[in-house]
Each structure stands twice: as C-alpha cells, then as structure tokens.
Design brief:
Blueprint lengths: L1 E4 L14 H13 L3 E5 L2 E5 L2 E2 L4 E5 L3 E5 L8 E6 L2 E6 L3 E4 L2 E7 L2 E3 L3 H5 L1 H6 L2 E2 L4 E4 L2 E6 L2 E3 L6 E4 L2 E6 L2 E3 L16 E6 L2 E4 L4 E3 L12 E7 L2 E4 L2 E6 L6 E12 L3 E6 L7 E13 L3 E6 L11 H4 L12 E15 L2 E6 L6 E13 L20 E6 L1 E12 L6 E3 L3 E5 L1
Length: 424
C-alpha cells in the first residue's frame, strides 16, 4: 500500500477552497496505487469535503486540525436516505460511498465550524436541504474511525448508513449542548458495529440507532451493535433506539458506560405506522447522574414529520397489522442512577400492542429532591412529572427484580389495569 503526506500536494492549495484540491489529488493518487495512507502532519488545514475511496486511511497526526468552511456555496450535494426518504444533503465533511476498508485515524482534530450551519437549519429544511454530517460512510464495508477528536459538527457527527463491520474507537466528540441535531454516533441500517472507549458530549442524542421509517422504500435492519466503555455527556439521550425502526433493530449490547446530564438514559421510541421490532437489547453496568428519566419505552413519540397526526397520539386501540411497531425482550441490569428528576422509568405501549418482556434487575434509582419537573417522554398531552417512580401503561411481562427507588413522591410503581408486572 502507498503512503503519502498531504504536504506533497501543497501546490494545489488555493484561496477559493483552501486544501480541498490537494486532498482530492492525494486521494486520486492513492486510489491509482490500490490504496494506502494519506498522512496529515501537525498544522492547520482549511478545506471542504474530503471524499475517500476503498483501501484508503486518512490519518491525522497529533496537532493536525482540519478546519471546514461554513460557506454552503463551496459544497456539492449528495442524495442519501434521511428519515426514510432520499434527501439532498451537502456532502459530508469526510465521506465515502460504496467503498471498503476505509478509515479515519490519528490524534488530530476535525473542526466542522457548525455555528453558521446551525443558524441555517430552518432555511435549509424549508428548501429540502440538509446540513452536512461530519463523517458519513454510505453503504461501505470494513470502516474505522479511531482516536480523532471531532468538534462543532454541522449536524450528525458520525453516520454509518447501510454499512457492515464498523469500528468506532477512542473517539472524542464535542458539540455545544444547545447545538441542533448534532447527534454523536448514529448507526443506521448497519450491522456488526462496535463503539468503544468514546467520549460523546453533544447537543442531541449521544448514540442513536436507526433503521428507516415507513417512508423507506426498503428499510434494512440495524443489528449486532456493541457499545462499551463510553462516557455520554449532555445530549437528549444517552443510548436511543428509534424512532426510525421500520427495518428492525436487534442484538444490541450496552455495557460499562457513564451518562452525565443526558436528558434521558436508555430510550426506546416509536409510533404507529412505523412497523418493525426492537428486540434483544441488553444493558448492564451503567452509572447515570442528573438525568430527567433513566429508562424509557415510548410508543407515542410525537416529534418530527407527521408527529401531530391523530394516529400518533390517539390512545384508542387500532387494528394490529404490519405497520404496528413492537418492542420486546429488553434486559437492564446493574444500573445506578443518581439525581433523576422526572421519573424512575416510563414504559408506555400501545393500547393494541403492549411492550413485552422488559426486565430490570439489580438497579437503584435515586430521585433528586431538588429536581425540577420534566417530560419523561415526548408525547402529546403528557404532563410533566417530578420525582415519580416507574410509570407503566400497556405493558406485559415487566419484571422488576431487586430494584430500589429512593426519594420518590408517591408509589414506586404506578401501573394501571393495562400493566402486567412482577415485583420481587
């Protein structure tokens, strides 16, 4: 495999797009030689999108910083499925499509300079355009992102779509807590994904697992996902599955993580017409501190397009068919939660389809006596809660074994006649 330094292509740097042409020529040279490593030494590099090809590793040495332009006129666009439908998106800052053996490695920094993009959010959306993701692998195999620091992402930070064999390791992601839709890592319709030893501090979900919506032409599953030894900070959720789950999400293992100041902890969400199933999820050895609600299963998720339609919020039973979503076989154990604000847990299935076989064991949830009322889940007409225990509706086979709730107001478990649960 070939090896080259970006400095070898410095003659291509220009005022209009900085180092962009230099990266293009470096990638082209490596591709002609069957692949290799594009080495970026310490220094500052202003650039637009970098498109990688098969068998190429982009390696950022310590002290190397890629600064991305925030001028949309400098970017091309791609077409990529987004919320189930093909969407025109500005080309991600680092992008590969239909490639294999591609990687972004090293101890350098990628600065997306997302401030201007965040302000353009509504304008772009009104014109059916989407902000660029920082790193996106589209239908790729054998991909790695290791040890780099990613800051100020214009939108989602790392997005593997329809990929196989993905390793994201030792990555540090930092986006402002109030930056819109700056999710950390979003495995989407991908399989065999490992996310380990990462620090993710973002303005939306830290990790969100997705598999398409009812609008997807051919929704594909997201499966065999391992998340271990990660630190989640801020964000709307620590680990989120759905609401895009029409292609199914299964075989997810989360272990040995710390969540701090995330709005929610483990959050599963869906709604009618999405279809699909979330199943075989295992969560263990987690510490959470200062969360609104640590455990959520919500079949009435109301955010996004069509979220205010009657079928989304209606509590009356609907016919069960292929568009009815399912959540089942979820196991959570050895979790310690400190200073939870709204509720210890919130499980709300559909009137026609209960959430099934949910087990919590060896867990302790301490409610925050000084906490403020909050929404445990995003549902139309749901009232804020403060210091509540487990709220159960339309559930079947819920088991709470050796679960302790401290400092809650009212009963530790609030389950009506739609809730089938067992305490021990």
């Amino acid at each position: 495999m070939a090896f080259c330094s970006i400095k070898e292509f410095e003659q291509y740097v220009n005022e209009e797009k900085g180092w962009t042409k230099a990266f293009e020529n470096a990638v082209e040279k490596l591709e002609e030689n069957g692949g290799g490593t594009l080495y970026v030494p310490a220094g500052e590099y202003q650039t637009c999108s970098i498109v990688l090809k098969s068998n190429i590793t982009l390696h950022l040495e310590a002290g190397a910083v890629l600064h991305y332009y925030d001028d949309r006129e400098k970017y091309d666009t791609i077409l990529i499925p987004y919320i189930g439908k093909p969407m025109k998106m500005f080309t991600p800052l680092i992008y590969a499509e239909n490639a294999e053996n591609v990687a972004v490695t090293g101890s350098g920094t990628i600065n997306g300079h997302g401030e201007t993009w965040w302000m353009l959010k509504n304008e772009l959306r009104a014109n059916s355009l989407r902000r660029p993701h920082t790193i996106c692998f589209n239908r790729c195999r054998n991909v790695r992102v290791e040890h780099v620091t990613l800051i100020n992402s214009p939108a989602w930070t790392i997005h593997p779509f329809a990929c196989e064999n993905v390793l994201i390791q030792g990555v540090n992601i930092k986006n402002p807590y109030d930056s819109p839709n700056t999710d950390g890592i979003n495995p989407n319709s991908s399989k065999n994904v490992r996310i380990v030893n990462c620090v993710i501090d973002v303005g939306d979900d830290c990790i969100a697992i997705k598999s398409g919506t009812e609008d997807s032409e051919n929704p594909m599953p997201c499966e065999n996902i391992i998340i271990s030894s990660c630190h989640m900070v801020h964000g709307h959720g620590g680990i989120v599955i759905g609401s895009e789950m029409s292609g199914d999400v299964r075989n997810v293992v989360v272990s040995d993580c710390v969540f701090q100041d995330t709005d929610r902890g483990i959050r599963l969400k869906t709604r009618r017409k999405r279809g699909g199933v979330i199943e075989q999820v295992r969560v263990q050895n987690i510490i959470m501190d200062r969360v609104v609600c640590p455990f959520i299963i919500n079949f009435y998720y109301c955010c996004g397009e069509k979220g205010k339609e009657k079928y989304v919020w209606d509590k009356s039973p609907y016919p069960v068919d292929n568009s009815t979503p399912e959540i089942r076989d979820i196991s959570i154990s050895h979790v310690s939660v400190y200073r939870a604000a709204a509720a210890a847990g919130f499980f709300y299935g559909l009137s026609e389809k209960a959430a099934e076989n949910i087990t919590l064991s060896d867990c302790t949830v301490s409610m925050d006596k000084e906490g403020t009322a909050g929404m445990p889940a995003m549902m139309t007409s749901m009232e804020p809660m403060k210091g509540k225990g487990f709220f159960l509706r339309n559930v079947k086979g819920v088991k709470l074994h050796r679960v302790t709730v401290k400092n809650c107001s009212g009963r530790p478990v609030d389950g009506d006649n739609t809730a089938e649960y067992e305490l021990s």
